[in-house]
Amino acid sequence: MSVEAITIILVLITFAIYTAIGWWSRVKDTSSFYVAGQNVPTVANGAAIAADWMSAASFISMAGLVAFLGYDGTIYLMGWTGGYVLLALLLAPYLRKFGKFTVPDFIGDRFYSNGARSVAAIATIFISLTYISGQMRGVGIVFSRYLQVDIVVGVLIGMAIVGFFALLGGMKGVTWTQAVQYFVIIIAFLIPAVAISLQLTGNPIPQLALTTSDIVDRLGQIQIDLGMTEYMAPPFTNLSMLNVFMVTLALMAGTAGLPHVIVRFYTVKSVRAARWSAVWAIIFIGLLYLTAPAVGAFAKYNLIDTIADKPIEEVQSIEWVSKWETTGLLQIDDQNGDGVINFTGGEDNEVVIDGDIIVLSTPEVANLAPFIIALVAAGGLAAALSTASGLLITMTSAVSHDIYYRIFNKSASEAQRLRVGRITLLVALAVAAYVGINPPGFAGEVVALAFGLGGAASLFPVILLGIFDKRMNKEGAVAGIITGLSFTLIMIGGNSFPPVDYWNRRTNS
User: Fold this and answer.
1) Which sequence ranges are marked TM in the entry (predicted)?
2) pTM for this structure?
3) What domains can be seen in the chain, in order of their start residue?
4) By the 8 A CB rule, do 217 and 223 touch?
């Protein structure tokens, strides 16, 4: 059976499970729709948080960043993981104790201001739309490669599935679906990691194989021979230590301030449960993040070994090469006409690889079993859809709860609020599909933009000061959110991102 056929079967099975959970979790009250009735078990909530967090950027792009940036990629590992420590210690317990539904809810009531509530709701919508475009790009990539359909069709299929269980079950349906999706994600990431580690080093534990074998030395020597930068070259050559610290801090604050992550801590019964949810989430997330550096190194070694200095006819006859070339995410061109693929660090480089395909293509490059290849595709879809569903609920609650109910119609009945919530979700689905079809960049870049806009620049400082500083007032909250959003958008729009020279090194290393 072909890889595509197995992938279709696995995707249909997982989609059927998600749909069944959505039907089982259907809700009739706003508490269940917005915060899952605040009775989600701690471990299940930790798994849901992890799935919400392990988006297309984490599953698809993280290992790609490490593969192409080497040491410099650790800045993302440190920042994104450290953000959960901030969240667990500084925000989650206090926000749960406050007892509201959303981040704008907290900001509006803390500062006794509907103006602050409105600005926070608008910021939440803007951040979520930016973030969701990266997830939908991931869905499009998986569908375009493994199901051989147009990216537009893939995005629409993904949005239809997410819309079904989100419309029926709200946050309750999303939470239980995400808990299942976490296990799909982590199994799909760990199985190929173990298989490739065993294949290349004889050690089935990727983390140990990376540190105790000579695979990194071999990769470094290959890169030097090809004219690239040595893989384990001194880190952060383009950044001062102050910049490294500030970028890491910004990523930590961005993680801690993302509204779709924060809202997960409203779904549990108590403050203690919120703390333990964060602990479980860190454990679950750590399984992937501690494996990503090994996957990145193994993937790059296999990729270079398969393509570099090989005859063009031999390379183009490889099935996975031709299939990825049709997506436009892999480009091989014998520019100098010598009949050999030059995969170098100079101007004569003839291979252009999109970082988003590293994890998805790795099982094929390593000649693993078709089932494993299909499993990775299902994992990539689960990662993107789990985060997309959380973002949709976050946008929906910002409009229907924080703006419609809390500002314009405080006497709205339960049925009216649910109806507005579901109508808002349908509109959000349509907008999310559009930005997924027309994303502003690759998955990792778009998600990092959402981090800068969301946590580090706008919501995180206001939430933090709102919890710990009694002197903080509504004028400061409104000014802080507006200034942070505007300044960050202008700065990122006028400069390349990420801060390291990723684009050049992506194509030339």
Assistant:
1) 6-25, 46-69, 75-95, 116-134, 146-168, 180-200, 244-266, 278-299, 371-399, 420-437, 443-465, 477-497
2) 0.82
3) 3-310+355-508 (1.20.1730.10)
4) no
